[in-house]
């Protein structure tokens, strides 16, 4: 295993374990809906967007409406537009890895790659690639495993999704410790709380991201104007 792979594995291991548990629960959920293991395995590998995969699984047992699925997918995953804008500079020189880095950019891979302090002795594109690959493989493997075990094991997995919420809290805390200024992070946290209280849990994330982009853009141009 290369140095880049070892470094990425060390940083990604907590996320991989979370993905393995959640992926397994997703596979078992799909089995409960009546699908064999190939469905969660294929959907995890092709769609690779955990929350929407759960939603689509439920929609597949109803009267399927492609337009509804399309709109739901765009709304649920609209945050990735902002992830992509943030990572434009970091992924600009990743060469052959760029298509997979774009395809495999989930919440957790974005959080890790956006904040990783990669040693100068390591190849950054390879580190970003391995972080994304390890997360991808753990989710797909977990989904397939859950589909296989769904008929053999009966487990109450209610509340297991909080694993990833807890992990994000840890990542956020660690980022607060390392950045020189905590202003932007705390601003985002405040906007999220206000957005949740006003808009509710279904739409607050998109609204919060749009407001943050607007606020930071105004602040940027205000600073540019002052410097001139």
From TrEMBL:
Q: Name one GO cellular component term.
A: plasma membrane
Fetch the Pfam families from UniProt: AzlC
Sorted alphabetically, the keyword list is: Cell membrane, Membrane, Transmembrane, Transmembrane helix, Transport
- Membrane as a keyword? yes
GO BP, sorted A to Z = L-valine transmembrane transport
- Superkingdom assignment: Bacteria
Q: Where in the cell is it found?
A: Cell membrane
- Transmembrane spans: 12-31, 37-60, 67-85, 127-152, 159-176, 188-221
Indicate the principal place this protein occupies in or around the cell.
membrane
InterPro entries linked to this entry: Brnchd-chn_aa_trnsp_permease
Keyword set includes Membrane: yes
Which PANTHER family has this protein been placed in?
A: INNER MEMBRANE PROTEIN YGAZ (PTHR34979)
Annotated protein name in UniProt: AzlC family ABC transporter permease
- Organism this protein belongs to: Limosilactobacillus rudii
């Amino acid at each position: 295993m290369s140095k880049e792979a070892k470094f990425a594995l060390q940083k990604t291991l907590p996320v991989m374990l979370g993905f393995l548990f959640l992926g397994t629960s997703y596979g078992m959920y799909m089995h409960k809906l009546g699908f064999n293991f190939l469905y969660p395995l294929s959907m995890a590998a092709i769609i690779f967007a955990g929350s929407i995969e759960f939603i689509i699984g439920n929609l597949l047992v109803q009267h399927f409406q492609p337009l509804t699925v399309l709109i739901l997918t765009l709304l649920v995953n609209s945050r990735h537009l902002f992830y992509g804008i943030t990572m434009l500079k970091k992924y600009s020189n990743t060469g052959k890895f760029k298509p997979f880095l774009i395809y495999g950019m989930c919440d957790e891979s974005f959080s890790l790659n956006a904040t990783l302090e990669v040693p100068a002795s390591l190849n950054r594109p390879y580190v970003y690639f391995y972080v994304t690959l390890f997360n991808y493989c753990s989710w797909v493997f977990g989904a397939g495993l859950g589909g296989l075990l769904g008929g053999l094991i009966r487990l109450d997995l209610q509340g297991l999704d909080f694993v990833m919420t807890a992990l994000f809290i840890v990542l956020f805390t660690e980022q607060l410790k390392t950045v020189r200024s905590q202003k932007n992070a705390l601003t985002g946290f405040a906007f999220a709380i206000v957005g949740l209280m006003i808009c509710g849990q279904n739409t607050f994330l998109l609204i919060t991201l749009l407001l943050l982009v607007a606020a930071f853009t105004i602040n940027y141009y205000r600073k540019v104007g002052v410097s001139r």
